[in-house]
Amino acid sequence: MTELNKIALKIISNGKGILAADESNGTMTKRLEAVKVNSTPENRLLFRETLFSSESMKECIGGVILYDETIQQNSSLKKSIPELISSSGALPGIKVDTGAKELANSPQEKITEGLDGLRERLKKYYKIGARFTKWRGVYIINQKYPSRLAIHSNAHALARYSALAQENGMVPIVEPEVLMDGNHSADICLSITSEVIKKCFDELILHKVDLSGIILKPNMILAGNKSKDNITNEEVAQKTLECLKNSVPSEVPGIAFLSGGQSEIEATENLNLINKQNETGFIMTYSYGRALQQSALKIWAKNINNKEETQIAFNHRAKMCTLAAQGKWSNNLENN
Ligand code: 13P
What we know:
alpha/beta; TIM Barrel; two-stranded antiparallel ribbon; 10 strands; 48% helix; globular; binds 1,3-dihydroxyacetonephosphate
């Protein structure tokens, strides 16, 4: 077992999942303004620190993805943020892409940037405690897109990033996110997501990335959010499993889904159904941002010093997701 494989398994084994708290300052400002809290560095830290010092960090969270600002902040407990996360047994991770920008010659689409100077940044992040990294490619679905250009160029960037992360001793989270925006059917999402993931693995293999030392972070197979396709949660689970079984090489230790705009309950229920039927051999867990933080954020926004109630909401969500990662979640447990 390689060191990278050990790190990947430590993050996602035994029902543990990932807390994606790596919103850029721009995205975090939108989230905070939506609940009428000023987006200052202190407030961004206070909310995140409240989550990172919750009880459920020990049993449920194997890794936390941070943003550049947060990984360099100190907690009020006189520890650095990576130390605070490590003290609960979870591993600190870092988003290293610098965002999705307009793709030249296909301006409706995006290419994720951040390769220039990446080796040096990775070395700095490792020194301050990061043991895994994240890079997100983003794809739209409509009549014309995604183009072969977007599928190819994002896969290439994900592979170059992954090779550099591994060179520096960190597990890359490979996140190709096919967005749910649009009126496409779930079957279109299935065929496009499969093509996108296969292309990513072609490039990862070409770049000699150790597949046993990555975590794939895909979207679930959903109908577009404006689609009339009435797909059940059972079908979401079946199609998601079909997609991954046919497009992910068996060396990959695990898959950690993004929530991508699903509600907290939807993201939990779908993950649970996936795990009830999972015969792929891959660990299937969560790497949720919104679906782990939404309830906690609403409560915190009412009184930003109410640590206890905020943590109760976060602990509940993390516990429900960890049950779902083992196929043990139920509506009863959700509501009691
Ligand atoms: P969501 O779960 O809110 O989609 O965020 C996950 C993530 O890390 C997106 O890059």
